[in-house]
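> forwarded from #structure-qc
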């Protein structure tokens, strides 16, 4: 596409050319004033550009403009638009590329004269330029035989690295004229998108703070605070203006160009709204890695703790743990939940022991009053299980516990014994590998919970302050279990799951997750004890 006006032959800027010939997905003009971070990217003529972005930030529109300007501006050129699967390609072709021609009659007339072709795999313009569409996630052979000067990889995080390498050979014949664009949303640090970005100059949108006169760190979790529904300085916490930022290379010696575009740098970002899809709404509802990937354009770190010690200490109060021998009536009259995770035989040196927590449900949070890990010689041997059962019975009585929620499976035998003593107060939870929400199965009389999704919810609720614990020196020995859990991602099966790091037990994670499930499910049910106390503070 020429940078000259077709009627006056006067030179015009690339920005003006783009605004004159292309529109955003709403049909309006591409806006560089309220989204200034896109201005440099659109004007960047680099032959190797990597865009690691959040969702719905404008990445595909940029790729669309690159494909059409390359095809319309250089007669006889050939462009390959590659993605993981046909569905992704069809969405780009029908939802992004074709509407650009439909919304611009002049561009449409120039592009589709005699000799032009349009089908699922090819758009050939009348100037003999071609845009090819190929899914290369599993069948890289679909792109073999093509010779193209420009390759645009969309959603590259879903494409195996070996397939990307093979497809890049399609531009080998063009030498110094070849061009590559990689766009996508990262997953883990080992994901291709993140690897590609790290091997670039790593442009970050750096925003100065007018209040403390410091340049902010690259946008990260330091800029997320549930008490501040706006973009704030990571140093002084005052509001900062995303429009005032500038692209600063963090790895300036690398010749490859890469931009990271998190949702937070868009000045039109909503932080909270009635649809519950603002930044902080998503922070509270998304699983952690989804929030990092799709909102922050950051990788989720596989094998690292999901929460820090500092965060955990922040959830602790200055209260002592409640003495079971002196439980005040004000506590006994509240909704009280006991959660038990029964011990299993560990062979790797990290012994697991039966753990119990006792919590009350308050209007805005769950307060854990008492915790115990049944460990020591008195709980070993033949009499150990009976001693544990007796102590649990005493705690249920002391706190006037309304519900004892426990794991089914490993603890099934102990649950049967306990149910024989406390009756229907004992409620079991069975973990399953499913995405179906937590639900009560009447046929087997227990809750069925998707393990991964329910633990997602637990960590999200924990992080936004839905749990309170006794003072740090009492609680930390239990809360350290929460740092022993991390996420594994199986690239081949495209599934993720929680695993224990091997540094220690994860028993208290399960206890707290059971407690949250009980509180949520009973709150939404017509359980008499909840109706009676109505969560009054």
């Amino acid at each position: 596409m020429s940078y000259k006006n077709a009627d006056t032959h006067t030179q015009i800027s690339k920005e003006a050319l783009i605004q004159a010939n292309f529109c955003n997905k709403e049909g309006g003009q591409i806006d560089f004033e309220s989204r200034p971070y896109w201005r440099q990217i659109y004007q960047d003529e680099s032959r190797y550009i990597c865009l690691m972005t959040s969702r719905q930030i404008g990445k595909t529109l940029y790729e669309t403009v690159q494909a059409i300007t390359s095809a319309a501006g250089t007669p006889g050129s050939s462009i390959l638009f590659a993605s993981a699967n046909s569905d992704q390609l069809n969405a780009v072709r029908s939802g992004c590329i074709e509407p650009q021609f439909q919304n611009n009659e002049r561009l449409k007339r120039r592009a589709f004269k005699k000799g032009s072709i349009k089908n699922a795999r090819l758009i050939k313009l009348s100037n003999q330029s071609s845009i090819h569409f190929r899914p290369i996630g599993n069948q890289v052979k679909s792109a073999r035989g093509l010779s193209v000067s420009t390759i645009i990889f969309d959603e590259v995080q879903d494409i195996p690295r070996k397939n990307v390498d093979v497809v890049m050979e399609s531009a080998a014949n063009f030498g110094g004229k070849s061009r590559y664009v990689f766009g996508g949303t990262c997953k883990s640090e080992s994901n291709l998108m993140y690897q590609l970005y790290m091997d670039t100059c790593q442009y970050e949108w750096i925003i100065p703070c007018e209040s403390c006169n410091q340049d902010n760190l690259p946008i990260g979790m330091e800029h997320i605070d549930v008490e501040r529904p706006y973009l704030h300085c990571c140093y002084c916490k005052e509001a900062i203006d995303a429009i005032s930022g500038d692209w600063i290379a963090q790895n300036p010696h690398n010749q490859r160009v890469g931009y990271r575009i998190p949702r937070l740098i868009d000045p039109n970002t909503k932080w909270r709204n009635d649809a519950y899809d603002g930044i902080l709404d998503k922070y509270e509802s998304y699983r952690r890695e989804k929030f990092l990937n799709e909102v922050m354009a950051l990788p989720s770190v596989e094998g690292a703790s999901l929460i820090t010690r500092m965060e955990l200490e922040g959830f602790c109060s200055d209260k002592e743990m409640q003495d079971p021998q002196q439980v005040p009536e004000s506590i006994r009259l509240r909704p009280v939940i006991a959660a038990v995770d029964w011990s299993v035989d560990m062979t790797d040196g990290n012994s697991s022991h039966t753990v119990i927590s006792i919590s009350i449900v308050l209007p805005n949070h769950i307060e854990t009053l008492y915790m115990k890990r049944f460990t020591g010689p008195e709980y070993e041997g033949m009499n150990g299980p009976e001693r544990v059962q007796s102590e649990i019975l005493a705690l249920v009585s002391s706190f006037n516990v309304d519900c004892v929620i426990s794991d089914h499976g490993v603890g099934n035998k102990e649950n049967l014994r306990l149910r024989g003593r406390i009756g229907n107060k004992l409620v079991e939870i069975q973990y399953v590998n499913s995405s179906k929400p937590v639900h009560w199965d009447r046929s087997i009389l227990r809750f069925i919970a998707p393990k991964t999704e329910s633990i997602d919810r637990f960590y999200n609720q924990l992080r936004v302050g839905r749990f309170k614990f006794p003072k740090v020196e009492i609680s930390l020995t239990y809360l350290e279990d929460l740092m022993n859990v991390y996420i594994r991602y199986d690239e081949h099966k495209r599934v993720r799951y929680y695993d224990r790091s091997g540094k220690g037990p994860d028993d208290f994670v399960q206890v707290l997750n059971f407690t949250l499930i009980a509180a949520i499910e009973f709150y939404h049910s017509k359980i008499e004890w909840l109706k009676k106390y109505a969560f009054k503070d």
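QC bot note: The chain has three domains: 1-30+56-184, 187-301, 309-533. The chain has 17 helices and 20 strands.
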